[in-house]
Design a protein that fits this description.
Helix 1 packs parallel to helix 5 and helix 4 packs antiparallel against helix 7. About 25% of the residues lie in helices and about 25% in strands. It has about 280 residues and is an alpha/beta fold. The strands form three sheets. The protein has a seven-stranded mixed sheet. A four-stranded antiparallel sheet has the order 10-13-12-11, with helices on one face. The chain has two domains: about 170 residues, Rossmann fold (3-Layer(aba) Sandwich); about 80 residues, no CATH class. It contains seven helices and 14 strands. The longest helix is centred in the middle third of the chain and has 21 residues.
Length: about 280
């Protein structure tokens, strides 16, 4: 089968699935000069697959169908993909159990408050993002100390197995797809949601740091705007609960390796290696 692939690095694990099953890539759409597309670009170059960095338009999509492309496959791709009526299959990967959790950035939501909807859904592409008929789903269990990056890793590892299962009997799954139903749309994360509030308890602060991981969590530390990025699992920042007379947000200790900030119920100790000064929160 001839495929047009649309995606970025967070799910580049899907690419090998198609090659191993003997399918052919006509083109790969991804982002140019992006830290999130280097692996996809390298895969295309290693396998002599044409790359496209522009946004998809209907004329080009129709041309692909005329060239024999049967499947459009989207995995972590942010742009709308026009689907010609003549196209045989059009499929997207979404990292929640649809119809719950439609939206562009669901993983932080899952960690913050909606963990029961964690999973992978393969569904048909449609005119509205994440609303197409469901083909296959797989739930993912979250640990108590799950982080954005550890959850991203689970999605990365488990999606290829689900895709392999789908491709093994694609016609049957496609014909027996199920309408999603009402479900829920999760809004884009706001700067406020992505910012530490020192008036919150340690447990909530740590949850927020886990929810954003390498995406970054904003904070005001000693009057300076910072972003905290942590890829470690478990989280490298540590909290300690106790009574004190410090003001919430006050720096208790600033040594060569850590900054310790007072919270309303204790302190948060943050490695300096994961803190970067920024111009604006």
């Amino acid at each position: 089968m001839k495929i047009a692939y649309f995606g970025y690095d967070p799910l580049f694990s899907c690419l090998d699935v198609f090659l191993k099953q003997g399918h052919q890539f006509a083109v790969i759409y991804t982002g140019e000069n992006s830290g999130y597309s280097q692996k996809v670009i390298q895969f295309a170059q290693n396998n002599h697959i044409p790359l496209c960095f522009g946004k998809p338009n209907l004329t080009d999509m129709q041309r692909l169908v005329e060239q024999g492309v049967e499947l459009f496959f989207s995995a972590e791709y942010p742009w709308k993909i026009p689907v010609p009526v003549e196209l045989k299959y059009a499929i997207n990967v979404h990292p929640t159990l649809l119809p719950e959790g439609r939206g562009m950035t669901p993983l932080p939501h899952l960690i913050l408050k909606q963990s029961i909807y964690a999973g992978v859904t393969l569904h048909k592409l449609s005119n509205e993002f994440d609303t197409g008929d469901t083909l296959l789903q797989k739930p993912i269990s979250l640990e108590d100390d799950e982080t954005f990056d550890s959850l991203s890793g689970k999605v990365f590892q488990q999606t290829p197995d689900l895709l392999s299962r789908l491709l093994f009997d694609l016609d049957d799954y496609y014909q027996s797809s199920q309408e999603q139903g009402e479900g829920s749309d999760w809004p884009s994360i706001t700067v406020g949601e992505q910012t530490l509030d020192w008036q919150q308890p340690i447990a909530q602060l740590l949850t927020r740091l886990r929810a954003f991981g390498s995406l970054g969590t904003y904070a005001n530390i000693a009057g300076k705007a910072c972003v905290i990025r942590s890829t470690q699992f478990p989280l490298s920042a540590q909290g300690k609960r106790y009574q004190h007379d410090y003001n919430a947000g006050q720096v208790i200790l600033n040594d060569s390796q850590h900054i310790t900030v007072a919270t309303i119920d204790g302190e948060l100790r943050i490695p300096k290696t994961i803190i970067t000064l920024v111009a604006l929160i």
